[in-house]
Amino acid sequence: KATVSVLYWNLTKMMTAALLSALVLAAPEQVHLAHKNANTMWVSWLDRQYFGNGNVQLDGKTVFYALPTFYNYQSSTGSPYQSPNIYHAEVTGLACGTKHSYRVGSDSNWSPYYNFTTLPCVGPNSPVSIALIGDLGQTVNSSSTVDHIVTGMSGTDPLQMAWLVGDLSYADAAYGPNCGRPGGCEPKRWDSWGNMVQKMTAKMPLMVGPGNHEQEDSPQPKVGVPYVAFKSRMKAPDGGSADGPYWWSMEVGGVHMITLNSYMAYDSSSVQYQWLEEDLKKVDRSKTPWLVVGLHAPWYNSNKHHHNETEEWGMRTSMEPLLHQYAVDVLFCGHVHAYERSHPVYNYVLTPGAMTEINIGDGGNREVLEADPVDWRQPQPDWSAFRQNKFGHGRFQVYNSTHARWSWHTIDTPESTISDPVMFVKNPTRGVTAHPQN
After folding, report:
1. Do the strands 161-164 and 206-208 form a parallel or antiparallel pair, or are they unpaired?
2. 212 class by beta-carbon count within 10 Å (0-12 exposed, 13-18 middle, 19+ buried)
3. What are the φ/ψ torsions at residue 332 (nearest 5 degrees)?
4. Which entry of 306, 335, 337, 393 is annotated as an active-site residue?
5. In the chain, which stretches have pLDDT less than 70?
6. pLDDT (0 to 100) of residue 175
7. Which of 20, 79, 137, 183 is the most buried (most CB within 10 A)?
8. Rounded to 5 degrees, what angle do the CA atoms 35, 37, 200 make?
9. CB distance 203 to 159 below 8 Å
10. Per-residue model confidence (pLDDT) at position 22
11. Hey, which residues does 387 pair with through a beta bridge?
12. Of residues 138, 131, 137, 144, the one with CA closest to residue 414
């Protein structure tokens, strides 16, 4: 009897431990903040076991509600996939530059509490600090990049938001699990990616644009549509594309930000082009003197990889005159897995006051760096100011209406190493001049 009692007691403890473990795993996951408008934040999360309406409890009292959604995906070779329940809550009534605590879930299934600060007020001399990422993925290098950004959220000039210019999870689900790429190609990689970035996205907004790896439609899946995971999981500010977060704009501090899609129609008759033209017309440079654009496929690239692809030269030919007309200051791009900053350039000609392009497609992706010296075209073009093959992220720190610091932070050491620090100084009429910094 004593032996039976001991076995029963041990079995009970094991079952209790397993139950508690299951309860922990059932907590809401992939928590993600995104800007919606001046007074509203998107709060998103996923839940694997709860199927009812979701809640956001703000500052211990106010509750905002969200209905569950999900999507299905079937690749040509893999098993059917149904996403966990996806929740997107609109948290309204927020003032700029204010601190809040929140948790998500339900009465029986809450997440931990997280803290965030709303974005800075809009104004010509309102400072803001933005992390720039491209081609992040979910490798050890990717995680290091995220860790360095999280570290940058405290201290001097703390980061207040992040901007990812395409290629998020590298799920590449259309290819099926046996695609021969590290980690495979499956829809569930969106879930592991969302959990990897949560240490950043639960505490400050992450704004995203689409890259080629978000399309997930080649080879043609048996069930699914292009961008289904991307548009189901990600949110964008008001006023952008009507059917998904494909292009959008927002204002933060003294900056007007625009995200475009390299992989949808961009000619002058397209919806995207016409939206861009109208958005540029509305920019008030007395309120947001800094005008910056993000997209995936670079327009200027002296690397041999992804050189002169259709999405690059085609979009540049169509849209560069428009961006030049409205004196865009900086263009941020990804796709090429190497870092490069240009001098002010227009139509491949050095042009004072023209747009500066910065390629940041080396956030940590699994397709490795374009790192061999022979990957760079020689001689270095006159429009190319600085180029480097190291994983990392950029920081765009706007101080006032005339000065902004740019720096590239590599993952060489536990504390991110700074490369290519420059001070962008506004020219009297248009554009910026880059002054190297220590």
Report:
1. parallel
2. buried
3. -105, 130
4. 306
5. 1-25, 222-224, 371
6. 86
7. 137
8. 10
9. no
10. 47
11. 340
12. 144
